[in-house]
Design goal:
The protein is mostly helical and about 170 residues long. It has helices at about 10-15, 20-35, 75-90, 110-120, 140-150, 155-165, and strands spanning about 45-50, 65-70, 170-174. It is built from 6 helices and 3 strands; from the N terminus they run ααββααααβ. Strands 2-1-3 form a 3-stranded mixed beta sheet, with no helix packed on it. Helix 2 (about 20-35) crosses helix 6 (about 155-165) and helix 5 packs antiparallel against helix 6. The two termini are about 15 Å apart.
Length: about 170
Amino acid sequence: MTSGPDKLSWRHLKEIIKNEEYTNRLINIANACIDLGYWPSHFKTLSTVIIPKPNKALYNLPKSFHYIVLLNTTSKLFKKMIGERMQLLISNNFIHLCQLGGLKHRSTTDVGVTLTRLGWVKNLTTSMLAFNIVQFFPSLNYQLLSLILAKAGFDYKVSNFFKNYLVSRKTKYL
């Protein structure tokens, strides 16, 4: 079974990127996406498999099912490449110390330890409240995000790219 709408597996991509010429072509495509401020629509199409959870009395509620989202594999590769490039911008003090979850080698545990240490240094007691923000992105004002990125000093191409990246996403149910 392949992982998503492009019918391409990671095994296939790993073979492709062994060839330097093909790797350079993929990098050029990812760079063009940022330069043009455009995320192709076929990367925005997801496939969702719905599987009933076992031993449920009724199957009339969404929580009675498992939802497995299959992304376009090439899109995942490009997102990883773009994410790697963004690490440099983010790790240069752009993101507040309390928001380390998106950085490599950082987790909520790392944040907890960091905040606790900062509290100890200042002879304070540290408390944290964690909550789930699953519904944050569907309600995100994409125009406002673009303005925030621009005000934070991101290149216009980057803010324009993310504005396009977040809109017109589609899901196909299998």
